[in-house]
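@channel sequence for tomorrow's demo:
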Amino acid sequence: MELLQEYGSILVIVTAVLGFLMAFGIGANDVSNAMGTSVGSGTITVKQAIMIAMVFELAGAYLAGGEVADTIKSGIIQADAFTDTPGTLVLGMMSSLCASGVWLIIATKMGWPVSGTHTIIGAVIGFALVTVGGESIQWGQLTGIVGSWFITPVLAGIIAFIIFVNSQKLIFNRSEPFKQAKKYGPFYMGVTIFILAIVTISKGLKHVGLNLSGWETFGISITLAIIAGVLGAIYFRSQAFANKVKDQSSFGGVEKIFSILMLLTACAMAFAHGSNDVANAIGPLAAVESIVANGGDIASKTGMAPWVLPLGALGMGVGLAIMGKSVMATVGTGITELTPSRGFAAQFACAVTVVLASGTGLPISTTQTLVGAILGVGFARGIAAINLGIIRNIVASWFVTLPAGAVLSIVIYYILHAIFH
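structure tokens (generated this afternoon):
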């Protein structure tokens, strides 16, 4: 308690800096995944991807990032274990943010797409082990996390495989692929909007007090899907679209249609990602601010100071702009060669998997889901189309992330403990 009384304001300022560092790492690594396939397929340039992602990630974080943050990340540790030692929890949250930010930046420099969620969970476990012991950790929660390493990439890969093969049979392997694309394009657009509406409403907007039932969410989503399909059909048959497609006898016009679909997917996924993953950076920061402001009282949930959310959103945007290129390159071109139609299959599969996982409560990494989806597209083209060396490095980085976050967190905790004691 003496720690909070003596250094309270300083602790909040330092934690804010570390929260910005964590948000920077999320922007550099996690945010880049949402736009990597769009860049790799040639749909948009890196500069355009950064601008689009910054707008939608920031919008998701700021508009739907939530008024309430979990102070104990994902229920991994029990809050009551720190009732008598709130200063320990404050230093632990600070070390977790610092460790997570450092690891995400290291992974980004290496071009590894890793999970920000799993990084912060590993970091929280690390400091809890050396402060209050293993009995404070809810080890059962880790079962779902470890399971998600295998389940979600495989599920996304299967869905991407099916979507890609389906588009090949319905469009690319026909005598008039452009005519077929204009025929089935509105259907793909409708299904895409349906899935993304569910993602955005159920995951992206769940924090703003929209207590919609499952049927209400379904109704809104299907209505938007029908509208999108009709508008798509009108646009694909318009002179404006025809003028954009110079050679309608080649696959160029077909890919132009898939480019539109893919851009829609990337924008909506970026919004949903921003609204959810910003909590990885601001959750611990909100916890520290609340504990200091309340004189050491710890609550499992806490109101958020008005400056916390914009800080996290800004950090994500800056991280994406400064360091996002390397992970974009790995996701967009390193695993397998992507075109708009292949990238759409991967993004669509990722969105579907996110919907299924959120419905079952499975702790999911968007990063791992998207990589699995891209792999599915690669397998549909044949094993030779996949860069196995890149895949080996990515999978290895996934397994290293939890322990790396834990070890870094322990080291940083002892450094902070020495400084403030």
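heads up for whoever presents: The chain has 14 helices and two strands.
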